[in-house]
Amino acid sequence: xxxxxxxxxxxxxxxxxxxxxxxxxxxxxxxxxxxxxxxxxxxxxxxxxxxxxxxxxxxxxxxxxxxxxxxxxxxxxxxxxxxxxxxxxxxxxxxxxxxxxxxxxxxxxxxxxxxxxxxxxxxxxxxxxxxxxxxxxxxxxxxxxxxxxxxxxxxxxxxxxxxxxxxxxxxxxxxxxxxxxxxxxxxxxxxxxxxxxxxxxxxxxxxxxxxxxxxxxxxxxxxxxxxxxxxxxxxxxxxxxxxxxxxxxxxxxx
Length: 254
Hints:
Layout: E1 15-19, H1 25-37, E2 42-46, H2 48-58, H3 67-76, E3 95-97, E4 116-122, H4 124-132, H5 138-148, E5 153-157, H6 164-175, E6 179-180, H7 194-209, H8 225-230
Parallel strand pairs: 1-2, 1-4, 2-3, 4-5, 5-6
Helix pairs in contact: 1-7, 4-5, 4-6
């Protein structure tokens, strides 16, 4: 069900999702599934380097001329590489794709209506480019626009260790109003599959953006609660997959 994506007169107001070349493309897929499940509109920007990483990590290509077909295949693939981990046929009508080299695209302007931007995952080069305002491609330009318009910007940096220069860039982004969110999964929720770890990080990204989801089990103040519930049946999560359990696999979409 679509909700909260439009302004006073039906104006489309998407979340801009930027995918840079860092390892961690399953994080981006989980964020995209969560946004779509929440009824949000999405503007997608996939950098050139990200396409190479996506191909390396998943075996899936991402081509401008076939982006809907390629995105559908990407979103159906699990973090473990399983091609049909999630139900096929994801509705992509809420998604608009912009080539990374299109500096005349909608998100390149502050007058373009958008809710904010999520960079998942973010390379250290992307972090530096945004912190310094380089705008060398649409991803960096859209992030700079998001900051200058005082809209939410979440930067899920995926690198380790971090150099002093990168830490200074991250501090500069924090000072500018961005949320710096390292792609660091937690274990208190009782993860039983690699997808659970990915979904935790994606869920924290959506938390920072104020987007509701059920991607992970929240802390409830009980020690060992995640372990106690990991072996039993788990409620269905956003995107049509049962949360946790040994190889949760596919489940009917909500």
